[in-house]
Specification:
Blueprint: E1 13-15, H1 23-29, E2 37-39, H2 47-50, E3 61-63
Parallel strand pairs: 1-2, 2-3
């Protein structure tokens, strides 16, 4: 699952469009402290799944387009 991403400490850019992300998935993504760009368009996100991403202090670009629940 997405928890394995924390094993990539230098990950800076990630594209996960059309991924049907859950709260557990975005919580795992929030552990990628070096992440600067995240594309999660059309991923079925709601405010609940988006909340953990607030931890990403270095995030510069976030694409949450086409997630109608937000």
């Amino acid at each position: 699952g997405y928890a394995a991403l924390k094993e990539l400490p230098h990950l800076q850019k990630l594209t996960l469009g059309k991924s049907n992300l859950s709260a557990a998935s975005t919580t795992a993504l929030a552990e990628c402290a070096q992440l600067r760009t995240l594309y999660v368009a059309r991923s079925g996100l709601t405010d609940l799944e988006l909340a953990p991403l607030k931890k990403l202090a270095l995030l510069e670009a976030l694409d949450i387009s086409e997630n109608p629940q937000i």
